[in-house]
Amino acid sequence: MQKKSSTRALALSAGLVNSHVAASLMEEMLALVKSAAADILIPNFGKAVEEQKESLGLHEPVTEIDRRISAFILKTIRESLPGSYSEEDFPAELAMRRRENLLWQFDPLDGTQEFIDGFYDGVAIQGALLARVKEEYLPVSGFIYRPTTQTLWYVDEEGELIYERQGKLHRPPELKRDGVFKGCVRKVAPDAALDSRYARIAAALGEQVQLVECGGAGASIIDILDGTADAIVCDHSHSKAWDIAMAIPLIEARGGFVSDSEGMPLGDMNAAELRNAKGFVASILYSKEELIPRLNRS
Q1: Homologous superfamily assigned to 6-170
Q2: What does the pLDDT look like over 280-291, one tens digit per residue?
């Protein structure tokens, strides 16, 4: 079942964005994303040179390809939305990030470790269109693109969820429970504690458990949208706004939920602290009321 994003409704009612503007902005962004994937990312599969960076207090891998995609996209989108930024290029000063009422926030190469390790299905380019709504920046639209399969999910100007594969539109696959709770685990970063947590959640639901090896946050959300996995749990503060902001309108449009690990809305995606202090949880087939209490008891 598809629903309209409540965040989008708020932005529309406040006059911050209209359908025509949203359509134009999304069309421009998706064209840039596909070009970046075809011309920069894919030709460099197998050629990544790992570097290290410090980002928001964390030491993380990065490559020149992350930076090249970021620069390529920002050069164009900042002409229409000058406040836009990426994981690789964002103002350190809060006031600079909060000058505009509408902006793109994106991750030019989500799954950098997957890219370095050669797990290319775990790589995505993703972003959220953020609007200032009652002094909070909330995602009114979002997209995720997986270059290896040319899989694209986005929310269109009417708030409808669009699923595209290899340039052609498809009906989103039907999702249904099958007695097996399928939890996303990151293939390049095994986590025995998370594996056990999924097993305990499944047992509490009276179901079997299956651990689905996924990629970065964006690729994992794609796996939830298409039914490969049922839920993703990230119950620590290592994730950042651009890892999950785009998923909120996408998952909501599919009838699911995204929250922090305590079941609360993630709130301002352009706040002083860009790290998700209480992590995030997302699912379509399982409700917040089913997962959050079991998550916090497991």
Answers
A1: Fructose-1,6-Bisphosphatase, subunit A, domain 1 (3.30.540.10)
A2: 999 999 999 999
